[in-house]
Amino acid sequence: MSNPKHFIITVGDYHDSRGRFFSLRTPFHRPLNRALHRIGANWDKEIKCWLLQYNKPNWLLLQRTVAPFGSLEVLTRKPLSTTLSKRHNETTQFYLKSYQEMLYARGYAQNTINNYLSLMAPLMASLHPTPPSAYTLAQINTYRATKLFHHANSTQRQFVGALKLLLILNGNPINPTTLVRPRATESLPKVITVEQALGMIATTQNIKHRLILTVLYSCGMRRSEVINLKLSDINHSRGIITVEQSKWGKDRLLPLPQTLVSILKEYFRFYQPKTYLIEGPNGGQYSATSIANIVARAGKRVGIPQRVTPHMLRHSYATHQLERGVDVRHIQELLGHSKTDTTMIYTHVAKSTSLSIESPLDAAVKAQLGNKNLLEKGKNGGEDVIDLG
After folding, report:
1. Which of 35, 129, 358, 385 has CA atoms 20 to 30 A from the CA of 252?
2. Of the residues 108, 267, 317, 346, which is catalytic?
3. Are residues 52 and 162 both part of a single domain?
4. 111 and 39 housed in the same domain
């Protein structure tokens, strides 16, 4: 029986006192985990990835083992970004590069590496000249209290995860368990109405901007997925969009909306993208910040009071699908969620579920008015009388 899911297993090059290993990161999937274990890979709790002895026979064995489940992606190391290099001195750059190398070796995704570096760089600059190996708990707590207090809980939780790896890399004696993460908040997704989404698209004159809004809302794609979408990912004959290497390294297929087809035809008349569907002025990938600004301006144009973000369009897509009666398991597949629990949060904001349940007060008032109207009708010889006083 073939496996219906397709996983991307990221492969890093990890070294420690035990030797050299392939570091393998993959979403949790029991059959895949068993297959990796059978070829000699072991789960390392500390670095949270599979380790397989680094040699050519194991590489060939790994390729054959993974083939029924998905594909391997060997991480391509990138140099430290120009922004970080310009903002920080040579000492801080040295620690950032070492940290970056460790993250690559452990098989972390590029987006995670970028986020972790952006969180650790200000910390290193703030505590300079103290090296990471000598950071104290008092210094870290002061930094968190003065620099991170205004950030969202999700950012603070990510900061703690990144910091633990930095301290372990540099042999800092602080016990990682003393670095407490803030409690995860369970806020409901923010959504807009169907009419507001249509208004945002209809009032956008620039065809490229209109295409971006349409893709975000009609497909429920993440902003990063829109940026990475290539011309080859759109199969017009089959009516399918392939989203490659999305969050958790998974590929998924989406239906190509008919409304998007007509906009694409108009878009291709004015633009000739070469590789990516949405390209920047000088070619290459489009800017994430530009997409955020396009969405925000469109929301403001139709009078939406709060700032609209690309992810709000994704939330709105899922909620509106649920309200139309689409099964939550299908929505899970369309969104690329690993767990149904993640998708189930939309049931809390969809009007077709709990929000359609009538208040007991409304029901009681209706019942009272109904009885009163029947009584008035009898008194007036069958004439309908509605008394709201």
Report:
1. 35
2. 346
3. no
4. no
Identify the burial level of 18 via C-beta atoms within 10 angstroms of its C-beta, where 0-12 means exposed, 13-18 middle and 19 or more buried: exposed
- Give yes or no for a contact between 213 and 295, defined as CB atoms under 8 angstroms apart: yes
Set 25, 210, 222, 252: catalytic member? 222
User: Which residue in the list 88, 210, 314, 320 is annotated as catalytic?
Assistant: 314
Tell whether 49 and 102 lie within a shared domain. Answer: no
pTM of the model: 0.58
Name the nearest CA neighbour of 11 among 101, 74, 102.
74
Question: Is residue 313 within 8 Å of 320, Cβ to Cβ?
Answer: no
CATH code, domain with 170: 1.10.150
**Active-site residue 222, yes or no?**
yes
How many C-beta neighbours within 10 Å does residue 222 have? 18
The answer on pLDDT for 102 being more than 70 is: yes
Please tell me the distance from the alpha carbon of residue 301 to that of residue 202, in angstroms, as a whole number. 11
What is the count of structural domains for the chain?
4
- 265 annotated active-site: no
Q: Is 77 a catalytic residue?
A: no
pLDDT of residue 76: 72
Q: Is 34 known to be catalytic?
A: no
Does residue 4 carry a pLDDT above 60?
no
Range of the domain at 157: 85-178
Tell me: do 169 and 217 sit in the same domain.
no
In this structure, the answer to whether residues 41 and 20 fall within a common structural domain is yes
Q: Which of 97, 164, 297, 311 is catalytic?
A: 311
